[in-house]
Amino acid sequence: MGKSLQGDSRRVARELSALIKTLAARIGSALEHDLASNEQERSHPGLVSHFTRFSTASGLDSIQGYADELAQAAFFHFLAALVNGGQPTRARFLPGLESMLAALYEDPAVQAELATYSIDQFSDEFHEAFLKLHAPGTKKKRGIFYTPAAAARFMVRGVDELLKTCFGIPSGLLNDHVKIVDPACGTGAFLIETCKALVSTGQESSAKRRVLDGVEGHDIMLSSLVFCEMQLARMLAAAGLRLHGDEALNLRQLNSLTQDPANELAANEGALVIVGNPPYAVSSANKNEFIAGLMADYKAGLKERNIQPLSDDYIKFMRAAQWSMEQARQGIVAFVTNNAYIYKMIYRRMRESLMATFDDIYIINLHGNVNIGEKTPAGDPDGSIFNIRVGTCIVFMVKSGSKKEHQVHYHELFGTKDEKLGFLDHATLPSIPFEQVTPAPPAFFFIKKDMHQEAEYEKHPSIKDIFQYFTIGVKTHRDDFIVELNRSKLESKVKAIAGDDPVENIKERYRLNDSTQAISGFRARIRAEGIQDSCFITYLYRPFDQRVLYFSPSIITRHRLRVMKHMFHQDNIALVTTRLLSTADFCHCMVSRDVGDIGLLSSRTSESAYFFPLYLYNGKDGKGSNIKPGFMSRLASRYPGVRFTPEMILGYVYAMLHAPWYRRRYAEMLKSDFPRIPLARDAVTFEKVATAGEALVSLHLSWPGPPAATRVAGHDGERVERFVHDATRNRVIINDSHEIAGISPSAWTFKIGNYAVLQKWLRGRKGTMLSREDESTFIRIARVLDETMDIARAIEAEFPRDPGEGTP
User: Fold this and answer.
1) Is the dihedral of CA 800, 801, 802, 808 positive or negative?
2) pLDDT, tens digit (0-9, with 9 covering 90-100), for 773-801
3) For the chain, N or C: smaller number of CB within 10 Å?
4) Is 644 helix (H, G, I), strand (E, B) or coil?
5) Among candidate residues 764, 772, 765, the one with its CA nearest the CA of residue 720
6) Residue 92 gets which letter from DSSP?
């Protein structure tokens, strides 16, 4: 009967994982023995040479990683061989390993496990569940996410339709001059749907010939290829297309991001189709000279400090596919990927490059970004077709060589996961009401954007045209180590790390993410420097959330000291804003008297906080303004007779950034670069707005006034166990016996950056005790937020909603 993989898949996955680990241990021991032995003394001929070939193809050179891959591949091969009548000790992806396979196959535990399974029970869903449990690190590192059949089916159907309409190939996929390749085939979702489409034509002999000669899959992981072969053989057998003799599916273990595979694809003389779901992994393990050279095209001329997103695996696969198409005569790339590249600024060179290569680009934006809380137009949570947090999209990129104008066609899909998959399962490309998008420099966006005010907006001075020096916020890379809620806790931690307690104990006690080697390095540096009182500084960590940082440049990854040193002076102020947005609306601005964190405004790397100090301190010369002289001259010319100060200019800028009309009117442009600031028509309006802005700056720096409410129920020292707002009574419940009164619904939901300020403040203290002083601070923050909304409304009333022709 066999074990059911449906009712208790986790239990079965655990049992299989235990067996794989046992087999891997045997393989690892055998490999270590053979590596240390001469050729005559090796226990398993071919094992060392296979390990070498595997390492070259996959980039994985660890014995443990290889042993685990081989154990998985061997077991799935045994299972397939039993069902298909093949030889369990001979496998096409495991050449020369007959001795090793025989030893594993004869293991009683393997035989017992094989006797309990049916091949029909295995699926992509089970394999994903198994891999997530068995090797979560590999799954994450390699960016492996399985494609729902409905999505793969839609994409294969779309390719067939484009071959017929764009290339004049009536038989579509069945045509002998069409080559279909999945460069990261995994367990075969796209290959299976392609073969099904071929079989469904009813032309059995042609379909089989096309499956064997025209369909190809590449992957670097042995276990995935063996599983893929098993799945494909099962599907073909069910369709009556059994493989005989030397017939074999065209599956190959290789890295598609290297030169030779790319050259092979580029040499195709017919229509080339590259289809699939390339892996998503920002910290890509795929690094070689060939793909690095190609990626330079996507990075050319970019001034962003962090261009790591352009090294994501899926971006590399898109670039490699594009290169193959650049060499080929004609073809189609159809990928489902992260959708960041269609709308984020850092991908603008990539979009420009794709536009130059392809005649038509069809995008179905699937949205579903959990990280930004994406909603449907009706306000409901938007679902993802994958079990991931980022948004996704499907793209068809067509190179036919028959068009002079390059066009981008856009459609977006909202709804639940089931609704989206239902749409994909039945839709055809011709039936989708695409809108034409006209990507324009400098951003070349692939999505619909409301850019009607762009020309007007671009006339306004940018923040970087106003301030001379600025920097991104501090990035410690070890907040859990050197950032604390109060100084006494941080002093204890730093003293403990500098002490004699074993590093392993320190790591466990403080739940540090750093390696023991790294912590030992910090210990050595702190001991060499000595614990310095001046290193304990106030640190603006999150909105209105001051913490204590041990600011020692030797243990902080990005200290930004060149500009941040000016924030060590308490009479200085910095404007804090961001350059790029991935969220829906701009509310990303603050002021600070303190050194601040890169994540002050948002947890998203694309929304890093930038600090613009008001003054620069130069030792004996005292302080000087950080406002650019050219901008001061511009103001003096525009508003004669006004005596400008840095504080006045900061107030004006801060007021504009909080004006509701400003955020609405320039919503799209604010996502793409540093904010630009419209200048008032006359001096009177400028001064009024500046005055309101200075009041807002003062409010955000000093939090004036007595507490807006007093505590009810409970006693001093309340633990934050949860944070629930009771809108009917304007109270926040933090545990079963304690509430904080006087918190309005608007203050509770008020956002700075991507943080709901009060909720984030409490979340950062969950599990800790709130003192009376802490609670009073929380209430003052709520009051500040209420007053902020009042001042923002007053600013809007004072400043004209229509700046006319823009800033001359």
Assistant:
1) positive
2) 899 999 999 999 999 999 998 888 877 56
3) N
4) coil
5) 765
6) T
Whole-number Å distance between alpha carbons of 320 and 268: 15
Residues in the chain: 808
**Cα(97)–Cα(48) distance, rounded to whole angstroms?**
10
Q: What pLDDT is stored for residue 122 in this prediction?
A: 66
34, 47 Cβ separation under 8 angstroms: yes
Average per-residue pLDDT for the chain: 88
Give the pairing of strands 471-472 and 609-613: antiparallel
Q: Is the pLDDT of residue 449 over 50?
A: yes
Look at residues 700, 351, 775, 720 and name the one whose alpha carbon lies nearest to residue 543. Answer: 700
* 711 confidence band (pLDDT: 50, 70, 90): very low
Compute the average pLDDT of residues 175-186: 94
pLDDT of residue 803: 44
What are residue 752's phi and psi, to 5 degrees? -120, 120
Q: What's the pLDDT score for residue 672?
A: 85
| Burial profile 193-232: b = 16 or more Cβ within 10 angstroms, e = fewer | bbbbbbbeeeeeeebbebbeebbbbbbbbbbbbbbbbbbb
Of the candidates 265, 316, 309, the one whose C-alpha atom is nearest the C-alpha of residue 287 is 316
How far apart are alpha carbons 160 and 197 in whole angstroms? 9
Q: Domains for the chain: give ranges and CATH numbers.
A: 9-137 (no CATH), 149-437 (3.40.50.150), 477-535 (no CATH), 711-798 (no CATH)
Least-confidence region, from 168-177, 222-231, 691-700, 786-795: 222-231
If you search the block for the tokens 């100090």, which residue do you land on? Answer: 613
Q: List the one residue out of 504, 514, 509, 511 whose CA is nearest residue 478.
A: 514
Distance, in Å, from the CA atom of 358 to the CA atom of 685, rounded to the nearest integer, reads 50
What mean pLDDT is predicted for residues 211-236? 89
Identify whether the C-beta of residue 656 lies closer than 8 Å to the C-beta of residue 662.
yes
The torsion of the CA quartet 790, 795, 800, 806, rounded to 10 degrees, works out to -130
The pLDDT, as a whole number, for residue 419 is 96
Q: Determine the Cα–Cα distance for residues 709 and 775; give it in Å rounded to an integer.
A: 10
Q: How far is CA 798 from the centre of its chain?
A: 41
Integer CA distances (angstroms), 456 to 29, 107, 510, 800, in order: 69, 75, 53, 15
213 within 8 A of 300, measured Cβ to Cβ: no
Answer whether 22's CB lies under 8 Å from 109's CB.
yes
Question: What are the b/e assignments for 635-648, b being 16+ CB within 10 Å?
Answer: beebbeeeebebbb
Q: Which residues contact 421 (CB under 8 A, 6 or more apart)?
A: 148, 150, 151, 385
* End-to-end alpha carbon distance in the chain: 81
Indicate the pTM of the whole model.
0.78
Bridge partners of residue 362, in order along the sequence: 396, 409
> What is the sign, positive or negative, of the torsion defined by CA atoms of 76, 81, 86, 88?
positive
